[in-house]
Amino acid sequence: MRQLQKWHANLSDLKTASITSRLASLGSNRWAVHFESRRRMKAGEDIVELTIGEPDIPTPTHLLDVANESMRTGRTRYAGGKGEPNLLAAVAQKYSTRTGRTITPNQVLAFPGTQAALTITMLSLVEAGDAVLVPDPYYATYEGVVQGAGAEFIPVPMSAENGFHLTPEQLEAAITPNAKVLMLNSPHNPTGAVLSAKEVAAIGDVCERHNLWIVSDEVYEPLIYKGDFASPFDMEAFAERTIAMASISKSHAAPGFRSGWAVGPNWVMDEIQHVSEAILFGGQPFIADMTAHALSHPDGTSAEMAENYRSRISLLMEAFASSNLVPLEPSAGMFMLIDVSNSGLSGEDFAMKLLDHGVSVMPGSSFGSQCAKFIRLSLTVDNDKLKTASQRIITFANSI
Ligand SMILES: Cc1ncc(COP(=O)(O)O)c(C=O)c1O
Fold it and tell me: Which of 41, 82, 148, 266 is most enclosed, with most CB atoms within 10 A?
């Protein structure tokens, strides 16, 4: 009996590490509207869901065929720690073409998606005592990426007035002595902003002056409607301090395959590999084959999605033109922000109340404090549904 009591006492002393509580407080609040919407839809309510953004076309058949064939021919064994040689070569080729420099397979690491690339890269670059600069608004998982590594998260306020384009002055003003990394995301989620080469160069200059790493999340590179893609990795002056990452999730409508990569200076990719191997112990060879094929056989998938999103942006811009809600026209990506401040409600209250009127959207506050007067709409439903959603949103706004 005494032995049993002792065991129970011991069990109540078992504790997890602080990383679990640091990350727990970041998730659920952000997605409260989405989860409530899912609950109501399950109960039979008619809601147009515009919260999350998943490509609404299927993964191209030719890629499924490659993965299938590859599995059947035995490509289901352990993969190398860096990634499969054919995938590393295909990624290196993509970036050699893009940058005009020779990028070698040694500069590439394969990851199960951009998210894992971000997290493992951050774990490899920073720790407690370091700080990471994150332009605000930001993609919802970034806070977890930084805090998971134990570093300080420093939001760099951007401004709606210039379409949420990060300026060198805004960056400079936020830099602290312990700042070590800038997380750059262009094309940007949730704003759809695309930084020009001139803007990227000016930001890169600040990073050079303060000796910062640049972690460049480029997952929306193929979905640009206005402006041209620019990356600090493509500029020789910043290539040695930049780790760029992307995936086939958005470009090839294949988020469930969890296939991405990071590319950067050889020596640092070698060091990140130690962390990556401890966590992943390699990837899936049949998915590597499919991804290598996707990169080396360009198809019309991105162009088809871009065309769909472009036409949905026009539809929404037209629909909201005669309302008191102010859309921010995105230059890229699969989302649109709408300023709802004329309704008198915060983005969060607007989004929660809008559920009663049959539409679910993300509150801007899920993406940082600079976005609190906005809601974010996903462009990944067809035009009819989007028309219904915009009419419901406008009717609701008029009723307030
Ligand atoms: C800005 C941004 N980065 C990363 C991701 C995650 O991408 P992946 O599916 O490649 O992990 C997303 C997904 O929505 C995103 O919007």
Answer: 82
Q: What SS3 state is found at 193?
A: coil
Nearest to 351 by CA among 318, 376, 381, 387: 376
The yes or no reply on domain 61-296 and CATH 3.40.718.10 is: no
Task: Give the whole-angstrom CA distance, residue 318 versus residue 302.
Answer: 24
Range(s) of the chain covered by CATH 3.40.640.10: 61-296
Residues 370 and 346: beta-carbon distance below 8 Å: no
Half-sphere exposure of 62 (CA within 13 A, CB side): 12
306-322 burial: b if 16+ Cβ within 10 Å, else e: bebbeebbeebeebbee
Which CATH number applies to 18-58+301-399?
A: 3.90.1150.10
pLDDT, residue 243, reads 98
Distance 249 CA to ligand 1 centre (A): 8
Taking only the tens place, the pLDDT of each residue in 119-170 is: 999 999 999 999 999 999 999 999 999 999 999 999 999 999 999 999 999 9
Q: Give the residues across from 184 on adjacent strands.
A: 216
User: Taking residues 370-380, what's their average pLDDT?
Assistant: 97
Cα 284 to middle of ligand 1, angstroms: 19
- Protein residues with CB under 6 Å of any ligand 1 atom: 113-115, 139, 185, 189, 217, 219, 247, 249, 255, 260
- Cα distance between residue 362 and residue 152, in whole Å: 26
List, by residue range, all CATH 3.90.1150.10 domains of the chain.
Answer: 18-58+301-399
Please answer whether residues 88 and 285 qualify as being in contact, where contact means their C-beta atoms are separated by less than 8 angstroms.
no
- 3-class DSSP assignment, residue 139: coil
Mean pLDDT, residues 68-97 taken together: 96
- The full DSSP string for 69-118 is HHHHTT--SPPPSS--HHHHHHHHHHHHHHHSS---GGGEEEESSHHHHH
Q: Which of 121, 250, 305 to mutate to test the pocket of ligand 1 (most atoms within 8 A of CB)?
A: 250
Scored b (16 or more CB within 10 A) or e, 143-180 reads bbbbbbbbbbbbbbebebeebbbbbbebbeebbeeebb
Nearest one of 250, 266, 249, 270 to 258, comparing CA atoms: 249
Nearest to 54 by CA among 315, 260, 254: 254
Looking from the CA of residue 217, the nearest atom of ligand 1 is 3
